[in-house]
Amino acid sequence: MHLAVGGLQRETGAAPTSLRSEMTTVELTRFKVAPERVEELLRTRPGMVAGFEADRAGFLQATLVRLPGDEWLDIVHWRSAEDFAASRAKGPNRPDIKAFFDTIDALVSSEEGTLA
């Protein structure tokens, strides 16, 4: 399911109560996408989320936020830091995940934290 609230786009994954765990790891990735590729980014997003749900242990949900200046913020919730690290090691290992990653022109920043 895909929800849009106040300019935020949220793809649902696991039940929202799973996000309340003190150990939930949050991945914050800021990146740039050229204006002519935005449609492709949005078109490939559901496939990327489905790929994560099928292939990434501990994936809980992802929220995509459009920022000014051709920048985007992806907020991804993981059950644990270990699950996030395992996902990162896999990279774009599936065509549905790679299609989304390929729309990204530049990585601006990437951070990891714990849900408070």
Note the main attributes of this structure.
116 residues; 3 helices; single chain; Alpha-Beta Plaits; alpha+beta; 6-stranded antiparallel β-sheet; 6 strands
Topology summary:
Blueprint: E1 2-5, E2 8-11, E3 25-32, H1 38-55, E4 59-66, E5 71-78, H2 81-90, H3 95-101, E6 106-114
Helix pairs in contact: 1-3
Keywords: Monooxygenase, Oxidoreductase
InterPro entries: ABM_dom (IPR007138), Dimeric_a/b-barrel (IPR011008)
GO molecular function: monooxygenase activity
Can I get a quick summary?
With 116 residues, the chain is of the alpha+beta class.
Runs with pLDDT <50, length 5+?
1-10
Beta strand %: 35-45%
The coarse overall form would be: globular
The domain tally reads 1
Widest β-sheet, arrangement of strands: 1-2-4-5-3-6
Predict the CATH topology: Alpha-Beta Plaits
Instruction: Please tell me the overall pLDDT.
Output: 87
Q: Could you estimate the helical fraction of the residues in percent?
A: 25-40%
Q: Return the structural class.
A: alpha+beta
| Count of separate DSSP helical elements | 3
* Distance between the first and last residues' Cα: 25 Å
As a whole number of angstroms, the C-alpha radius of gyration is: 13 Å
Pattern of helices and strands: EEEHEEHHE
Q: Mind summarizing the main beta sheet? A: 6 strands, antiparallel
CATH class: Alpha Beta
Query: How many DSSP E strands?
Result: 6
Describe the structure.
- It is globular and about 40 Å long.
- It is built from three helices and six strands.
- The chain has a six-stranded antiparallel sheet with strand order 1-2-4-5-3-6.
- The N terminus is likely disordered.
- It is α+β, with helices and mostly antiparallel strands and 116 residues long.
- It holds the Pfam family ABM.
